[in-house]
Amino acid sequence: MILRLVVMESSSLPISLFRQYIFCPRVVFFQEVMGIHVPMPHWTKQGNDHHKKQVLLSQQRTLTRFDLEKGKMVFDVNLSSPIYKIHGICDAVIETDEEIVVIDFKLTKKVQRGHIYQLAGYALCAEEKFKKRCQLGFILTGEKAKANIVEINAVLRSEVIQILAKMDELLILGTLPESSANEHQCGQCEYFNYCNDRF
pTM score, two decimals? Predict the structure, then answer.
């Protein structure tokens, strides 16, 4: 938490880094410290195509699968937080009279820990933007967009802030962090060739 306060006022981290950090902190190092940006893998385009499809389908559906009777659903919402110094584009946000619900589309069928932290990052920003509480989010997985509910509770918020502190520490130290990634993870990482101590 202290480290978060010493970072330059103008800095802001992409919310997508939550997912990357959980996958492997070295991805954050190569992107943010070394400034290395590699061509995106083929599944990135698949994800973008999936997003466009889900936006079209969601525009035709009601809010009943979110257990909401009414609300305004907006897509591709730009979010940022001067408090937490993070920013990103949330796939969808539902605004009701009382609250905000954040939504993320994922082509994968399984919700991963990094997805949850990313969604929580959107929730923190959405609260600032809309001046309403955000205690609920959904990760829509797979082609059928299965709605997986995520409670944005105090424990999750605390964990997100802790991850921010760890990323800040990584940026401040500027040294290659240790990695606990397994062989399968390394095999699908676009930064694998930059790690000379892996498998």
Answer: 0.87
